[in-house]
Design goal:
Radius of gyration: 19 Å
CATH topology: Rossmann fold
Strand order of the largest sheet: 5-2-1-9-10-11-12
Number of helices: 15
Number of domains: 1
Organism: Candidatus Daviesbacteria bacterium RIFCSPHIGHO2_12_FULL_43_11
Largest sheet: 7 strands, parallel
Structural class: alpha/beta
CATH architecture: 3-Layer(aba) Sandwich
Low-confidence stretches: none
Distance between the termini: 21 Å
CATH class: Alpha Beta
Keywords: Cytoplasm
Protein name: Gluconeogenesis factor
Mean pLDDT: 92
CATH superfamily: CofD-like domains
InterPro entries: CofD, CofD-like_dom_sf, Gluconeogen_factor
GO molecular function, one term: LPPG:FO 2-phospho-L-lactate transferase activity
Helix content: 40-55%
């Protein structure tokens, strides 16, 4: 962890969701001035407790912005205690989601609720819902299957009947929302815009469907950085087995083709990828679940995204209890923050 003396002071904005966003925020909070970190949280979660409270209480789904709040806590012991207590369930819902629902009601809106929760958890970073409209994330596959709402697509990873010959061909939001003005302001003022690791079709690409977000990214002078996932996921992005395939879909939703025609180079400045070895035994565990390591095909990436710089780092860490690999939050943050 960086000391208060050598924290960086960049205006960093991240757009993501789920565990990948949390991992990025842990590292960023430790290595950048916390007040200069901004997390733009997704608002289309429809599954589990978060989705149920969304319907029952008439609130925006709290799961992703609560991940951001926890990820931005500065006291590690306080964070660990919060995780232990807040995962407890009472009345059918984890306390963390119930707390978010109460805060939104007490403060007459999600933004006021988030500010109240920030004070409770001593969070100094900024957390902004990407949109304030209640929306659903829908998807279609090339074989004509339709999934209305985010959690149905997310469930495919555990569906033994899903054919790996099928793949997501389109995602869209209903109704089409406008971006939260505060999210646009943050992007326009940013030194760096980060898309952290995360489920591409449910946590990353949907941000680019929000009216105003791609336009702000193209307009801002901040550097655009993507942290590539380590593995594919069955049912969602099992077909995005190479970095160039992943990048191509991102470019499509960003509107990068028009930017390349206009400027001669991609709007994406950096693609951060892992370069350290992953144990074959761990890889085989993932393969048994329909997942694969994403291959980094550098030449193809640079061909389709002119001017793109590929940054390699030893990003992987292994959790021997869960048998999962993930990005090391400290190394990921240092790698990105040190980019010019």
């Amino acid at each position: 962890m960086a000391t208060k003396r050598n924290l960086q002071t960049q205006k960093v904005v991240s757009l993501g969701g789920g565990t990948g966003h949390f991992i990025w925020l842990r590292g960023a909070t430790n290595h950048n001035d916390p007040v200069r970190n901004t997390a733009i949280a997704s608002t289309w979660d429809s599954g589990g407790s978060s989705g149920e409270l969304r319907v029952k209480e008439g609130i925006l789904p709290p799961g992703d912005y609560m991940q951001c709040i926890l990820g931005m806590m500065e006291d590690e012991e306080q964070l660990q205690e919060a995780i232990i207590i807040l995962k407890d369930r009472a009345g059918g819902h984890p306390l963390v989601n119930q707390l978010a629902a109460k805060a939104e009601k007490a403060h007459h809106g999600v933004e006021g609720g988030i500010e109240g929760l920030k004070k409770l958890f001593r969070v100094r970073g900024n957390i902004i819902p990407v949109s304030l409209l209640d929306v659903d994330l829908n998807s279609e596959t090339k074989n004509g299957n339709c999934f209305n709402r985010e959690h149905l697509l997310d469930k495919l990873k555990g569906d033994p009947k899903f054919s790996l010959e099928d793949e997501v061909s389109r995602i869209f939001l209903e109704p089409l929302p406008k971006a939260n003005p505060k999210a646009l302001e943050a992007i326009l003022a940013a030194d760096k815009i980060i898309f952290p690791p995360g489920s591409p079709y449910t946590s990353i690409f949907p941000h680019l469907l929000i009216d105003g977000i791609p336009q702000a990214i193209q307009k801002t002078k901040g550097k655009l950085v993507i942290a590539l996932n380590l593995m594919t996921t069955k049912g969602e992005d099992h077909h995005l087995t190479t970095a160039s395939r992943w990048l191509k879909v991102f470019q499509y939703y960003l509107g990068d083709g028009e930017w390349i025609k206009k400027t001669g180079k991609s709007r994406i400045d950096y693609l951060v990828v892992n370069e350290n070895h992953v144990d074959p035994e761990i890889v085989s565990i993932y393969q048994s679940q329909g997942q694969r390591l994403i291959e980094v095909d550098e030449s193809m990436c640079k061909e389709q995204a002119p001017g793109l710089k590929i940054i390699k780092a030893h990003l992987v860490e292994y959790d021997r209890y869960s048998h999962l690999i993930r990005h090391n939050p400290e190394i990921l943050a240092q790698t990105i923050l040190n980019l010019p």
